[in-house]
Design a protein that fits this description.
Blueprint lengths: L3 E2 L6 E2 L13 E4 L4 E7 L5 E3 L7 E3 L11 E3 L13 E3 L6 H23 L16 E5 L13 E3 L2 E5 L5 H10 L7 H19 L4 H8 L6 H11 L18 H24 L28 H21 L12 H18 L1
Parallel strand pairs: 8-9, 9-11
Antiparallel strand pairs: 1-2, 3-4, 4-5, 6-7, 10-11
Length: 354
């Protein structure tokens, strides 16, 4: 993620900002340009984005609910922005609790789309591809004892997210009950979209054998693998080969977990660079804890160079969190086999974005 600057007054603004807190200009995100722009009224419902010299835009239809601040070119003829046109089912926004939760969902989903667009990954809607297009359904839980719980998951491009995951208390309850070190809404989005890109870039992209060589054979019975994981847990040595305990479940889950961590890494490194952060502790004579974040995922660097920046950053951020009495921000180990898996995904994304 980047920092942005208001084109009207030069004040720093952030991805989710709706207006500049300094000059008051309304702000909108231009997905085609990858920037947040100050806006001037252009008559009626259209706006002129100061980030570009010509053209008129209007807000995504979901701006009506304060669920989106992305813009759509008037010439495009679409009511919804690049991110929101992938919505298949949203909760009833006339219910205040649903609306509040959906807004939280959209903030996470739009951050996901920021990275997918930055990496130039293929994005096809369900309307464009009824069988495999990417579509999201945000489902509210049924009343107690009145039907099955909503399961977050993926099926041939259809990603279902339980609306209850937008509730911090409920998500923390589930994290604790499942013994997870980390559980976030953005993490769910990144994990589930990893399954989608496995379908697109591995299964349909002719890379099954190459992927099996790194992640294992996905033809292993998934249902049995899932039951085994919940019955016996992860192997005791899982950290030597996997990025998370859940990644040990099945090669599909290993891929999706590693995909999610890859997006965590590239997005966080970009933000560290945007803030001009550097890591160089004076006590570190070896220099192994130093990083200047001059490399990002689309720079052409290999994954080893990216990880060399990532590890010092996580050591520093984890130490800062501990000073505040918080859990480690990134409570995971990047072992050499995990670096290899990240490298496979790094290559997939780079090839797909060319």
């Amino acid at each position: 993620m980047k920092l942005f600057k208001c084109q009207a007054c030069g004040h720093l603004v952030y991805f989710e900002n709706r207006a500049c807190e300094c000059c008051g200009h309304r702000l909108g995100y231009l997905p085609d340009a990858g920037t947040l722009s100050a806006l001037e009224p252009d008559g009626g419902t259209t706006w002129h984005a100061l980030a570009r010299s010509e053209g008129a835009d209007r807000f995504c239809a979901n701006a009506e609910f304060d669920a989106c601040n992305w813009l759509v070119p008037v010439t495009a003829g679409d009511a919804y922005c690049t991110a929101c046109r992938h919505n298949g089912l949203i909760p009833d926004p006339s219910v205040p609790a649903n609306l509040a939760a959906w807004r939280v969902m959209e903030r996470a989903k739009h951050r996901l789309f920021y990275t997918l667009l930055k990496l130039r990954l293929p994005l096809v809607t369900r309307a464009e591809d009824p069988e495999h297009g990417l579509v999201f359904e945000f489902l509210a839980e049924p009343p107690a004892n009145d039907g099955p719980k909503v399961m977050t998951g993926h099926d041939e491009g259809l990603i279902t997210i339980a609306l209850s995951e937008a509730n911090d208390l409920e998500r923390e309850r589930r994290r604790t009950a499942m013994g997870e070190p980390y559980r976030t809404l953005l993490g769910h989005f990144r994990h589930e979209v990893g399954h989608h890109y496995w379908d697109l870039l591995v299964r349909d992209g002719g890379r099954l054998e190459a992927c099996r060589a790194v992640f294992g054979d996905e033809r292993e019975d998934y249902g049995e693998a899932l039951q085994r994981y919940y019955r016996t847990g992860a192997p005791t040595d899982w950290q030597e080969r996997f990025v998370s305990a859940y990644a040990t479940t099945h090669p599909w889950e290993d891929f999706a977990e590693t995909w999610a961590h890859y997006l965590h890494i590239v997005d966080t490194i970009e933000m560290a660079e945007a803030f001009g952060m550097r890591v160089g502790p004076p006590l570190d004579d070896s220099g192994t804890l130093s990083a200047d974040f001059g490399v990002d995922a689309d720079s052409g660097a290999d994954i080893g160079r990216v990880v060399e920046d990532w590890l010092p950053l996580t050591f520093a951020l984890n130490s800062l969190n501990r000073c505040m009495g918080q859990r480690d921000l990134y409570p995971f180990i990047i072992s050499p086999p995990v670096v290899e898996k990240l490298g496979f995904i790094h290559g997939l994304g780079r090839d797909a974005g060319q």
